[in-house]
Structure of Delta-1-pyrroline-5-carboxylate synthase:
Amino acid sequence: MDPARDFVKSVKRLVIKVGTAVVTRTDGRLALGRLGNLCEQIKELNSSGFEVIMVTSGAVGVGRQRLRYRKLVNSSFADLQKPQVELDGKACASVGQSGLMALYDALFSQLDVTSSQLLVTDSDFKDPDFRMQLSQTVNTLLALRVIPVFNENDAISTRKAPYEDSFGIFWDNDSLAALLALELKADLLVLLSDVEGLYSGPPGEPHSKLIHTYVKERHQSEITFGDKSRVGRGGMTAKVKAAVYAAYAGIPVVITRIWCRGVQWMKAWVSIASVACLDISMVLKGETVGTLFHQDASKWMLHGEDGAHDMAVSARECSRRLQTVSSEARKKILLDIADALEANEELIRTENEADVVAAQQAGYEKSLISRLTLKPGKISSLANSIRVLADMEDPIYRVLKRTELAEGIILEKTSCPLGVLLIVFESRPDALVQIASLAVRSGNGLLLKGGKEAMRSNAILHKVITGALPDFIGQKLIGLVTSRDEISDLLKLDDVIDLVIPRGSNKLVTQIKESTKIPVLGHADGICHVYVDKSADMEMAKHIVLDAKIDYPAACNAMETLLIHKDLLKTEGLNDLIVELKSEGVALFGGPRASLEFDIPEAPLFHHEYNSMACTVEVVDDIHAAIDHIHRHGSGHTDCIVAKDLEAADIFLRQVDSAAVFYNASTRFCDGARFGLGAEVGISTSRIHARGPVGVEGLLTTRWGSVHPPESSSVANGYIQP
């Protein structure tokens, strides 16, 4: 829920105004699908205990269609050759009102809901007795669960031109809805339109942005209105005036559009396909849809709650200042951050423990709690990793390639910051530290959204890190997004944000890719394999497999599947490995062959990420079968081979299509923080490939390689020991 919309929890009575553009299609005919969908939503609200009052437009449009048809039927060919006179609006209203209400009555009757018609004129509201009787009538109808449907009686209205006065007399149905919301003491007014809400300019223009919370002091002079409604009288200008009038009188207002749900609206007498995805119930759940008008909106802005766009722009401006300073200056900032983390370790641990306790009480899975927990020594480890990162070669403004195009003309390819990054991650508060330090070193602005389960941990880490940033750079270099609803706003800012990196489940990555035009660097599931070749040193294999599984089972690069060459069956080394896994508490599940060989339960499927002390075991015929298995059931994250046979290792390294492919090293090797490298060695994307054995000095290039220990090295716990 958007914190600014927390008031919806107490909403009981609401007024819903339906604009002409909602009621009719672009050709002027009734939009039966939208109306049917709307009536279903109102029925659900009515059944849920909400008191719903409707204000509808569209009578003039409906009547105009009918009268044009009637005029055509009654006209001779000669009549049709004459100039056509525009139909009288009041006559159209008279004919259309009965037809529109007949349709509402039919739709609601199909849903077992009773509706009532109330026609009013502006002059009616001059009479205090009328106002009192109106309130009594509506209260009686609502008590009986009847839906009052209001409309201005245009057929007999004496109004000639738009006007306003101190009595709140209305000019159109938008202002009528605002007036009724006040008269009938509604808790919320919803103005439905054919656009998503109020934009900073005409919605069709590329730089127009949706305004989620209207602040009169800020937006009144900034907004450029487009053309009036294509069918109604007022358009967005009238809606904003009505919304401001009601909001500043104490009635919150939301301007939004009604989209269909993508389901079929079917009844005995009609079948209509509806396409879209917004319910009015989303407004009542406090989700960030449409534009909110509230009398306290200016106070929220004064309290410093930046919108998504402001946060992104601030990060960009700060990053540009960061890019102007020297490498030594950025190094100094990182060292200050490391010192600040260690100085505040006790406070960070306290906030993290509160998150862990809350997660346990909420019944979260052990794997998530494991990722959430900052274990003893973790803060010191993170601080040391930041210091190592600070001492590394400056990643920006390095000449990567120089080409002489002609005599005296040289083209240089230089590394540079990306700009502003939006990174969404789940559960792991230590990821915030890693990401922030990398952003500072590389001169990038940063927007971070962590999991809600780590809210307190992320908040204190963000406060400590930004507090260490110098004033000439600005603390807004790193923004912390606290509301999930803000993500949808940020994903629309393709003119400010340069790259989105989601770190989390495959579902999260997919949702983000489908919701933005900004480039997304995302990974799939972390279904990582260790293949033990027939040539493997089994003592080495045992160390590597145990490290890959039990060092951090919840990590995305923990081993999830152990593949074993068939020639190793019945050998003492393999038996020791299986026994060791079980003794460490690892639950084993087998493929069709392994489940029979080791008498373990059969895994329901190979493509499964446990994120816990469990893994799948399967037997393969040879290295080619292992590679085929990885390609069929893996996720292109991290895979490794344990072998003495260099030819087999080379085949594995060349043919496995994964982000990180290792030789005689644990899948956990790409967690660079374990080795003082400051961050993950293997970026979680299936678009960066490993090729061939390289030494440790090659791990920080743009192509991540495997670890090939020389003769004088030994492998312990899955990584090189000199």
Observations:
- The longest strand covers residues 399-406.
